[in-house]
Amino acid sequence: MKAGKTWSAVVYAGLLCALLSGCLYEAAETQAETPTDSGGEGGGETPAPEPAELPELASCNGPCSCDEMVRPANDTGVTFSGVFPSGNLASCADTANPQDCDFGRDRKAALGELSKTGSGAAGFDFVKVSANGDLLDKDATSWQCVLDVTTGLMWEVKAPDDAQGLRASNQTYSWSDNGQPDYTSVNLGECQQESCDTQHVIGRTNSAGLCGFNDWRLPTKTELQDLVYYANKQPSIDTDLFPNIKSDIYWTSTLDTDDVGSVWSVNFNFGTVAGGSSRDPHHVLLVRNASVPEQPAAEITEPELDISLRNRLAPLQRCSDVGVVSSPNSRFKRDDAGNVFDSWTGLIWRRCVEGLSGDLCDEGEVALLDWQQAIVLAVDASEAEGLTGENRWRLPSIKELQQTVETHCEEPPLNPFAFPNVPLDQVWSSTPHTGLDGHSYQYQYQNGILFYAARQQRRQLHLVRQCQQGVGL
């Protein structure tokens, strides 16, 4: 990367922060040319300092162990194929062009190969929970919480609009947290309590001991999006288990660190994800850890936090100290082919988006493809490497695209030491839209917004495949 390019990118980031009030990010300090020293003994020049080495990912030293996955997640719930340029099939029938429905828990459920503890649409597996915390039979007609067997999270279940108390589904809250004063907006929602903000509703819910527990909280944006049932619409959730959810916006606990006062939310209209002002009145769906697998320690080295090193691989990236580092180097490894193995999710990613190559993904030109072209390219990539079944290269689902997110950085919200020089553009998912049947979901590698686009649009492609347990790569 040329020094001039880095310098101009940094200046641009600094100006952007200055123009956008409330930007918490600090651009990397510009480095002027090292002055020469013609004085002193011998009149020689002072040599320029050697550039610091970039942090590198650990190597798998052969096949990566796929038994390390510690963050199980739900599938999207999509069991049908999308057709190009428009239309959706009633089932997963277009086997020549594998997409979302051809992989994962939903496929197994559709084939009758998925054993469930409870009930739920497609690959979801939920158990109803009583007011005192007892697990109920799937035929129970009254329940206040739901245990997600796959993720180990327990969710509150909203009551009808005319219910009295905290659980009435039509109540809204502004976002507040005493630990984040720059993001806090107090009592700007509409509710039955004296203070309508998230901090107060969480406190009151814990005091009331919903379902016998007092450790309820807001979900992260990854956790809440993981609950979205993308085969359903308005609301995009399993309404048999969550009967009173609104087709509307719900708060998460994840700060949108690109803007002061902005917090991420999930819209259960169609399952989109975006940031918004903490002053806005939105709904809440609280969650708690029931039997969540222990998360690995986020081992973060000082060089990983050095913005000047990050900017050598992501010239416009800005990071904030108010967020939580969610994608440290310690969760990733590289295999012998240079692919990136995410040990937290069990996914193997191409290091570069399609069209780019080289160890730092700084060679070539990014390929912009319509949805059908992207699916065909994945098929060709798998055939070229002799990969079949679940181990094939494919488009990631819309949930998988968010699972690697770096929540405390933007442009891109990714770890640049794992995924260097990512173009800040939209990337296709394999998930077709159920309501707009000429559209499929996309993810933005600029700041992590999740939306959808017409399938004729041209987007970049980041291939992924599933690591199979017990057999390495």
TrEMBL record:
<dbReference type="InterPro" id="IPR011460">
    <property type="entry name" value="Lcl_C"/>
</dbReference>
<feature type="signal peptide">
    <location>
        <begin position="1"/>
        <end position="27"/>
    </location>
</feature>
<dbReference type="Pfam" id="PF07603">
    <property type="entry name" value="Lcl_C"/>
</dbReference>
<feature type="domain" description="Lcl C-terminal">
    <location>
        <begin position="144"/>
        <end position="288"/>
    </location>
</feature>
<keyword id="KW-0732">Signal</keyword>
<protein>
    <submittedName>
        <fullName>DUF1566 domain-containing protein</fullName>
    </submittedName>
</protein>
<feature type="domain" description="Lcl C-terminal">
    <location>
        <begin position="340"/>
        <end position="465"/>
    </location>
</feature>
<feature type="region of interest" description="Disordered">
    <location>
        <begin position="31"/>
        <end position="54"/>
    </location>
</feature>
